[in-house]
Amino acid sequence: MALPKQVDVIVVGSGNAGFAAALSAAQNGAESVLLIDKCPENWVGGNSYFTAGAYRIAHGGLQDILPIVNNVSPEQADKIDLAPYTEKDFQNDMDRVCMGRSDPELSKSLIQNSNATIKWLAANGIRFQLSFNRQAYEVDGRIKFWGGMCIKTEDGGKGLIQDYLAAIKKHNVQVSWSTGLTGLKKHSFNDGYEVEVSLNGVKRTLTAGAVILAAGGFESNPQMRSQFLGPGWDLAMVRGTPYNTGDVLGLAIQQLGAQAVGNWSGCHSVAWDANADPNTGDREASNEYTKSGYPLGLMLNVDGARFVDEGVDLRNYTYAKFGRAILQQPEHLAFQVWDSRTSGWLRSEEYREERVERITANTLEELADKCAERGLRNKAAFIDTVHEYNEAVYAHRRENPNVKWDPAIRDGLSTQSSTKKLALAKSNWALPLDKGPYLAVKVTCGVTFTFGGVKVDPQTAQLVHGSTGSPVPNIYVAGEMVGGLFYSNYPGGSGLTSGAVFGAKAGKEAAKSVAGGRSISSRL
């Protein structure tokens, strides 16, 4: 498309946050909205494309959710156990998982607007579903949802971006690909901006009444990862887009005086297929290289030692931090291991033969031999670790014969008893691992997004100046660039919700600011 010379609102970034912002701006009165991204069109979607499309929202239970999902029959609804997840529940999870460090006003704004924002998206054609495959287990004939998260988009991140593209097209949002933001200069005569971009390597300048920055973090930049996340992070695999390199974060701080806030040494990182491309996500596989079945089994490093409590909490509250734990292991590798008791409970999209190398064996010794061919350095320690784990599991079961295994709750089946305790417990879902055939997969760390960002007003998503503490006129921020929400970890699904909530706020406020500017100009 030909780049316009002047627009009301420019949105930088084509992920969930950018699309939500563009849609909101167009619906709230902006007469011309332009969305730009430095990626080519075939890389549309940012990191959102590579997600499972999961959103965490406060809700009133099944009856509150049913009107916005498209995959529940009346017969299924009668079998579903889905308790309300209140704003207080959401806040408690944020406080607990983020160690009480999440900005309280930012967190409050996220939570209080979560339900209405997702219903707004649904009304605009984003197709939501109950996440049966990721967030529910069938136990005793009931479909039990767990972990405070229950909805996802149809076809995950791929479907989400497809639906967003259709939505912004209906509202005449213009899009320019291979267009990177390189500079912003405030006009001297109003609150608008001179916007410098690079379109296919050619410098162009246009004007905008308001600018929304939703260009992601620095997770695809190995130098910045090493600088801010720490030594070794340049070796982490990139789970999503290769285009989130921190350029716009740097521009906001250096050219606009933004205040850097939040957990700049923290990130969302997961157990990731060790055989994946290290530098970019796979647009066909999308989220399927994630390997999140560890609560059902064990994780051992190449020296044959466990290094995390696989059952410390429901997966939603641990998967975003266990990538870091894997990166800290020798050679940045680990093996996830199951026996026949639980291997059938693994999600097929992550663990089917077409998607991952499945290391199978009839005995534990044979499994150790095969893992040794793929990097395991100490077979004897591997076998001893599993045997000691099994002894601890059986000791706990002898003392607690009535405790029942239930993957949908923290069931209390552990390795700790009065007669046997492991130095590193498995706190829940601890079943013996001694019934062949056995299965293992090799994993490493996949980095998803970084937590450090810039300070925004929690109610308007307007950028806050670092020196004055005042809002920067007509500049708004959404998505991964918002700093102060997540520390060390996050409650699963809250990232996409944050992008949508603050994207919607940014779009609305940007449209209002431009409308106000037009009104003033018309009176001059």
UniProtKB/TrEMBL annotation:
Residues 8-494 form the FAD-dependent oxidoreductase 2 FAD-binding domain. Signal peptide: none annotated. The keyword Oxidoreductase applies. Gene3D superfamilies: FAD/NAD(P)-binding domain (3.50.50.60), Succinate dehydrogenase/fumarate reductase flavoprotein, catalytic domain (3.90.700.10). Its cofactor is FAD. GO terms for molecular function: oxidoreductase activity. It comes from the Eukaryota. The keyword Translocase does not apply. SUPFAM superfamilies: FAD/NAD(P)-binding domain, Succinate dehydrogenase/fumarate reductase flavoprotein, catalytic domain. Keywords: FAD, Flavoprotein, Oxidoreductase. This is FAD-dependent oxidoreductase 2 FAD-binding domain-containing protein. The lineage of its organism: Eukaryota, Fungi, Dikarya, Ascomycota, Pezizomycotina.
